[in-house]
Amino acid sequence: MTLSVVLVDDEALTIQLLTHLINWQSLDLTLVGTASNGVEALEVMEETKPDIVITDINMPKQSGLDLIKQTKTASHQPAFILISAYSDFRYVQEAMKLDCHDYILKPIDEHELAQAITHVIEKILGERQIETMIEQHDQELKRLYLKNYLFSGQPIDLLAVRAEDYPVDFRHYLVLIIKLQYQSMEEFNKAGHMSQDHKQKVERTMSGVLGDTGHVIFDYHQEAWVCLISQVSPSEMGHLAKLIVQQLQEVSPLSFHACFSHVYHTLTDLNQAYEEAKLLTRYTMYLDTDTVLGFSYNMDSKAFKELNTESLLKELHDSIKQKSFQQAKKVLDDLFAVSKHINPEALETIYETCYQITTLIQSTLVAQDIENDETTRLLKTSYEEIKQLTDLKQLQAFMHQLLYVALYDHDHQDARYSRLVQDGIRVIKTKYQENLNLETICDEIAVSKNYFSYLFKREVGMNLWQYLTEYRLKKAKRLLLESELKSYEIAFQVGYDNPSYFSMVFKKYEGMTPNQYRQNNVIK
Fold first, then answer.
1. Residue limits of the HTH araC/xylS-type domain (predicted)?
2. Which residue, of 76, 107, 127, is where some domain finishes?
C-alpha cells in the first residue's frame, strides 16, 4: 500500500535534502506536496490528504507545533514527524503531548530519518489492518444477525438487525435461493467434496450477474445459497436468475436451480419470504428444461389445487386387480397431471401416494411369485429411495416401470425396451468388469451420447450409471456370499479400481459395508 507524504520547511535546501534522503521507492512512499510554513501546509494537506507529514518546528506565520494542533479537529489526521535545529526538551514534551510520532534534530541523519519513517509506516499500516479486521468482524456480525432472523423469524433475532446496515432496500425485496440439483450419484459425490474455492466461485458468479443491484449473498448452507435482492421486479428477477444458472453451468460441473419469493415490503416479512422461496425448491421436481421458479413470474399461488388421492388409489387398486396395465397407467398419469398444480407444502403427499402405490404393486409381485433381478430390486424399494427421485420424469418413469413389471407378461420383459437400450444393457452386462464409460458404450452400439442417455433414462426409469452401479453391486453381493474373496478383490472383479470408493457406494445403496453384508447374510 503506497502512502503519501507532504514535506514542510521554510528552508528550500531542507526540502531538497529530505527529497534526496528518503528512499521513496523502497519505502513505497509518494511525495504529494511541499510547503514553506504551517498556513501553506494546511492548504496542501486539505488538497492532498497525506498519510505522513514531515515538518519543521520553527517557521514563519505558523510553527510546526501549531500546525499539528490545528489538524487535531480536522476529519483527516496524518502522522507527523517533527524536525528541528533546537534540542530544547520543552519542544519534545509538547510534541509528545500532541501524539507526534517522532522528533529528529538537524542536521538530519539519513539513517535516523529512515528509521523514523519506517516506524511511522509500520504504525499506520498496523492501525489500518486492525481497523479493517474490526470492520470485517463487524460486517460478519451484522450478516450473522440478518441470517439468524432470515432462517428463524424469531423477534429476539430481529432486535439485532438494523435495515440501514445492509445494502438492501427492505421496502422492496425478495429472497432468491440457488439450489444444487443432483442428476446422478457422481454429482452427489462432487457436491459433497465441494472445495471452499468452488463455493466462493459460485458466490462471485452470482454477485457478478447481480452487479449494482442491492443484494446480500449468504454462505453455502444446506446445499444452497440464499440471497436477498432489492428493487427488482419478478420478471427482472426471472431474467437475472436464468443468467446466474446459465453462468454457473459454465464454471461448475454441478447442476443448479433458482427459486424466488414474492416481493415483500417490510423487514419483518423476511423469514416468510425465505420460507416461501424454500417451498419452491421442493417444487423443482416438476421442472423440465426451465431452471427457474418464481412467484409472480412462472408460479401462481392462486392456481394451486388440493390433491384428493383416495379415489385415485381405489381406481388404481381396481386396475391392478384386473391386471389392466393401460388403465393403471392412465390413473397414474392423472395423478401426476394433477400434482403439477398443488401447493409445494403438499408435495409430501405425492411421495406418500407413490409409496402406497409401490407397496400395493409389491404385494402383487409377491403374490405372482415372480423372481428375477428386476422384481428383486423393486421389492426392496423403500420410501427413502422414492424421495431421492427429485425429478418428476424420474418419479413418473419409476412408477411406470413398477406397473409394467407387475402387470405385463414377464416372459417377454426385454420387448419393452427399444433395440438401442437393449444393446446398451447387453454391453453393461458383458463388460461391467471393465472401466466402462458412456463414450465406450455409445461407440459400441453406434449412437450419440446425449440421445442414448435420454432414451435410456426414459425407458428404464433410471440413468445409465445408476443401472451400471446396481448391476455391479448385485454381482458383488453374490461374490460376497458365494466366495471367500476379499472385499478389495471383489471391488476389482466388478469394475471398481478404487476399493474405498466401492465400499462407499456399497454402503450408500445397502446401508452397510461389504464385510457387514457378508457377516449378516452368511449361512450359519
1. 422-520
2. 127
Residues 398 and 469 in one domain: no
pLDDT of residue 388: 73
Identify the domain containing residue 341 by its residue range.
Answer: 309-407
Residue 101 CB neighbours (<10 A): 18
Judgement on whether residues 200 and 269 belong to the same structural domain of the protein: yes
Considering the entire predicted model, what is its pTM? 0.47
- The predicted model gives 400-414 an average pLDDT of 62
Q: Is 502 exposed, middle or buried (0-12, 13-18, 19+ CB in 10 A)?
A: buried
Considering its fold, how many domains does the chain have in total? 4
> How would residue 372 be classed by pLDDT, with cut points 50, 70 and 90?
low
Q: What is the pLDDT of residue 263?
A: 93
Grid cell locating 518: 457378508
**Number of residues assigned to the chain:** 524
Under 8 Å CB-to-CB from 516, ≥6 apart: which residues? none
Give the residue from 407, 432, 453 where a domain finishes.
407
CATH number of domain containing 251: 3.30.70.270
Residues 6+ apart with CB under 8 A from 286: 339, 340, 392
Percent of the chain exceeding pLDDT 90 equals 16
CATH code where residue 476 lies: 1.10.10.60
* Lowest mean pLDDT, pick from 16-20, 50-54, 376-380: 376-380
Residues in Cβ contact with 81 at an 8 Å cutoff, skipping those fewer than 6 apart: 52, 53, 54, 55, 100, 101, 102, 103, 104, 116, 117, 120
Whether 171 and 243 share a structural domain: yes
* CA–CA dist 43, 241 (Å, integer): 51
Does 327 reside within a domain?
Answer: yes
Give domain status of residue 290, yes or no. Answer: yes
pLDDT in tens, 444-501: 888 888 888 888 888 888 888 888 998 899 888 888 887 888 888 899 889 888 888 8
271 neighbors 153 (Cβ within 8 angstroms):
yes
Domain identity same for 331 and 438: no
- Rounded to an integer, what distance in angstroms lies between the CA atom of residue 192 and that of residue 41? 61
Which pLDDT tens digit goes with each residue over 269-280? 999 899 888 878
